[in-house]
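Long-time lurker. I teach an intro course on protein structure, and each term I like to show students one example going from raw sequence to a predicted 3D structure in token notation. This year I'd like something fresh instead of my usual example. Would anyone be willing to generate the tokens for the chain below so I can use it in lecture? Attribution to the forum is fine with me.
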Amino acid sequence: MKIKKIEQLKSAREMFFPKRYRAVIMPEASQQANEGTAIIWEDFAKFSEGSETSPTPAEVNDQMGLIPSQYTQMPGWGGAGIHQSGGSAYIGFIKSPYGEDTGFITTPPADLSGNSGTYTIRFRARSVLTEGDELLISNFDPESSTPYISSTAIVITNEWTEYTVEMNQGIEKSRLQFCTLYGGWIFDDLSVTSEGVPAPSELDILSYKGTEMTVRWNAVEGAEGYVYNLFYPNNMSGGDLYLKKEEKTTDNTLTVTGLDPDIRYQLNVATVVGEKQSAYSQTFDITPILATPEPIRPTDYDGSAFTASWQPVENADRYVLNVYSYIDGGTRDEQVVPFIENREVTATSFQVTGIDRNTIYYFTVQAKNDNGDISDVSAATQILPLLDAPVAKPATGVKANSFVANWTPVTYANTYQVNVYREHTATADEVYDWPMPGAMSSRQMPRSTLLRAFRAHSSSEPSPEHLTGIFRWPPLLTEVSA
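-- Reply from a regular --
Happy to contribute to a lecture. Here you go:
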């Protein structure tokens, strides 16, 4: 089964492109640029003003985030906070909705889909900070509503250094964006070529049994082995927790045991050729190969039994049913009291008998096949009776300052919600003062008319409303035991 590729979890800084304005998209860069070897290249020779120690005060980019084509060898560059610095580009700071932020520079769109989307970036750079800086390089799709595709980070020093970075997931109109975390930096002599060791780009989940998975990725030509990571997000403190980290394998089919069924794992993989390792692939979400059943709320509850049922799941051979309550009749997050545990049934329904009418029950279900593959657990369905609406009856014991409200009893109801209204028919919009203690006064009253009288409750599930009368204006609400 093919699975959806998901974006990696990103820091706020790595999401910088969507939070800033977008540069004007210029024509795609030529595949034959720089004597036919580089897809994107720039030497910033036309950034002739200023110097490394004294960049020009004015930014080269305009307010739309476009660098005019007379300043670059290839049209379509963009960004913010970009200055000339004597034959190189200085990227400083900008004002943003988040305060002062580091600037960024963006390449023209170019076709980086060759070589299975793997490409190599070469450039020279240095940080103006003595301690150096971290440089984020992101690949994004300018025509997508969710432009981020992938990113990587390297450390740059305070000295001029040549850097080579291999990335993947290139598309036909990729743009690359460069941004530091902390301070200004100087950028020069960029080239992007369609070369490098490709990473696997597709993943099939062959089996998922809750505690065991088998996956297969596309074999890369010339690969001598692979390195993979199996991990999941650390929701408490951020980052990732690893079940397998930088594990090696020579096969493109992988079986891993010891999984926690309650955790959604993610996997990425890199190719190894000799002593060279590719960049890691995109992150794949490890999901069950069977869909999750959809429970159907029971309609036959009679206090002693009910039918648990659910929609059928394609390729499921059986279903795993659990019925339970909570200790002392409590609600969610209390200690679970099992009633039926892991009952396997071949049908899409099961008659549950012998329940206590004073206990609230829940059921969940999973799909399973003959190979042992199992789905996620369905949403829990609460078992409660379907209540009829009470019917209001004439009041009795009517006195100057009190009366007795009456209604028909409802089977299984244990409380009733009673709303008492003062009837009034407005002939035009008017201000009405409600004289009861604690009520708000001088409220503008529209002409719409409706009275809601009684509602029956069984634990947390109300019945449909019983509607009577012609007008509601602030209700006096109370609950009465059944």
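Some talking points for your students: The first strand starts at residue 40 and ends at 42. DSSP finds two helices and 37 strands in the chain.
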